[in-house]
TrEMBL record:
Keywords, comma-separated and alphabetical: Hydrolase, Signal
UniProt domain Sialate O-acetylesterase: residue ranges: 105-350
Coiled coil: none
Keyword Signal applies: yes
Gene3D superfamilies: SGNH hydrolase
Protein known as: Sialate O-acetylesterase
Signal peptide (UniProt feature, chain positions): 1-19
Keyword Signal assigned: yes
Length: 457
């Protein structure tokens, strides 16, 4: 009996000592690693196990030892964009070989349904776009929808090579972003889509943000339950973002805001703190480019405009950029079908601000400040070169006096400045623009990019 127990102990010890090396699903065949960076490879094995990793781009072999918690993490240096390469993990019990690995640009795409929206969901020229989506150096990883009450370490999903079959169900905005970047720079692009339709920004924000800023807990109470997405704070961050924070990315793309119309006034506060928390968890001030929600007939007056203005105000956070979509929307559809131009505009911001390869204007006019001259109110805008109205329809400018009552203003353009007057306002003190939920104004700059909704208050 003692002999049998001894033998069983030996067998158990051997199984414990030589467990399989295990990798998170974010590491797999066909993946993309961030170029010219220090990136982490990580996973699990037996406690205190020693094994080797060989990186194909330089032929180096690294010895790795797990901790007592059975986790391991090692930093490797990636080369310039290229590939394909292999990465081999050689343990005492198993060997893992990752094949067809590319080195390039890795971008995370997140938000709600307009980011999740695919060609199969319905976009302009869907059949043609799907048929032409043959870009083997664009790789796609869709994070499976999950929730969690605490931050997790593992996401479910697989890297896929971009093809008509895989592109058709992937984020269309992210795909068009990657296609534009690759065409301009001729480098591999890896996209990670972690989005969930109808989700509010609160579910994508770590819980400690709410602990540090109780006012955000209060504003979150205004978010109503819906049938499409969880509303509990941090649940999607915990399950779909936290497990990615050790995986090196170049930047993030975001398309969300429709589900925060209920607490629109606090969106800038929430959104900027969410961005800062993501950067903190990744340990990098990566670029964060986002899409302003489009005009749509929301339930309460002005709530969509307030979110748009809050998104504009979030640009005060460094290394951010915003795409305005008022000219490529339909006010009766909360899911505009033109995802091509959205992805193109996001990519152009990245190409100019992050990659420094584009010289053209990539932003529409943005409110800077105003001044008054007797009955006139002069609006100064950034990115206003070649300012013009495309149509003679309602300009959507309003000004108010000390009583706070807004009146439609008559606009003139003078040296790329908008000059406003209203018969009812003798001493103007404030101005707002496109302040209706469905306002689609026609004020553009020379790059034919539209002016953002704004309020001077």
């Amino acid at each position: 009996m003692k002999t049998k127990l001894f033998l069983l102990s030996i067998v158990s010890f051997i199984q414990f000592a030589y467990a399989d090396i295990t990798l998170p699903r974010i590491f797999g065949d066909n993946m993309v690693l961030q170029r010219e960076s220090e990136v982490y490879l990580y996973g699990w094995a037996s406690p205190n196990e020693t094994f080797n990793i060989t990186t194909g781009w330089d032929g180096k072999t690294i010895e790795v030892k797990t901790g007592i918690n059975a986790k391991w993490r090692v930093q490797v240096t990636t080369p310039k964009a290229g590939g394909p390469y292999e990465i081999e993990f050689n343990g005492n019990k198993n060997t893992i070989k990752l094949k067809n690995v590319l080195i390039g640009e890795v971008w995370l795409a997140s938000g709600q349904s307009n980011m999740e929206w695919s060609a199969n969901s319905g976009i302009v020229d869907a059949a043609t776009e799907i048929q032409n989506a043959r870009y083997p150096n664009i790789r796609l990883f869709t994070v499976d929808k999950r929730t969690a009450t605490t931050p997790q370490e593992y996401v479910s999903g697989d890297w896929e090579i971009c093809s008509p079959e895989t592109m058709a169900d992937f984020s269309a905005v992210a795909y068009f972003f990657a296609r534009r970047v690759q065409e301009e720079m001729n480098i591999p692009v890896g996209l990670i889509d972690a989005s969930w339709g109808a989700s509010s920004a609160e579910v994508w924000t770590p819980e400690y943000v709410f602990d540090e800023h109780p006012q955000l807990k209060e504003s979150h109470k205004l978010i109503k339950t819906n049938q499409w997405a969880p509303i509990e704070r941090s649940t999607l961050y915990n399950a779909m973002i936290a497990p990615l924070t050790n995986f090196k990315i170049s930047g993030a793309l975001w398309y969300q805001g429709e589900s925060n119309t209920a607490n629109a006034q606090s969106y800038k506060d929430l959104f900027t703190k969410m961005i800062m928390s993501w950067r903190k968890e990744w340990g990098a001030d990566f670029p964060f480019y986002y899409v302003q929600i489009a005009p749509y007939n929301y339930g309460r007056a002005h709530e969509g405009a307030i979110v748009r203005d809050q998104q504009r105000r979030a640009l005060t956070l460094p290394n951010t950029g915003m795409v305005v979509t008022s000219d490529i929307c339909t006010v009766d559809d909360i899911h505009p079908q033109n995802k091509q131009d959205v992805g193109l505009r996001l990519a152009n911001i990245a190409l100019k601000e992050h990659f420094n390869v584009l010289k053209t204007e990539v932003y529409g006019p943005l409110f800077k400040n105003f001044e008054t001259n007797d009955r006139e109110l002069l609006v100064h805008l950034d990115h206003a070169n070649g300012l013009h109205f495309k149509a003679k329809s309602d300009s959507f400018f309003e000004i108010a006096g000390a009583d706070g009552v807004y009146h439609t203003a008559k606009p003139k353009i003078r040296n790329n400045t908008v000059v406003l007057t209203a018969k009812q306002v003798s001493v103007p003190v404030s101005v707002r623009f496109a302040w209706g939920n469905t306002d689609i104004p026609g004020l553009f700059n020379a790059a034919e990019l539209p002016t953002s909704t704004f309020s001077s208050n």
